[in-house]
Amino acid sequence: MNVFLTPKHEKLFHSVLAAGKTMPVGDHAADSYAIELVRWLGALTMKKIIEPLEIKGTVSSRSLCVTRHALAYCSGLADTMFAMQGLGTYPIALAGNEKQKKRMREVSCGRQVAAFALTEPDAGSDVVSMRSNAKSEKKHYIINGKKTFISNAGIADFYVLFAKTKPELGKKGVSAFILEPNAPGLTIERQEVIAPHPIGELVMKDCRVPLGNLLGKEGEGLRIALATLDVFRPTVGAAALGLAERAFDETLNYTNTRKQFGQKLNEFQGTQFRLADMAAALAAAKNLVYHAAHQIDAGSADVTISSSIAKMYATEAAQTIIDSAVQLHGGRGVLKDSITERLYRDIRALRIYEGTTEIQKLVIARELIKRLP
Question: What band does 46 get if pLDDT is binned at 50, 70 and 90?
Answer without folding.
Answer: low
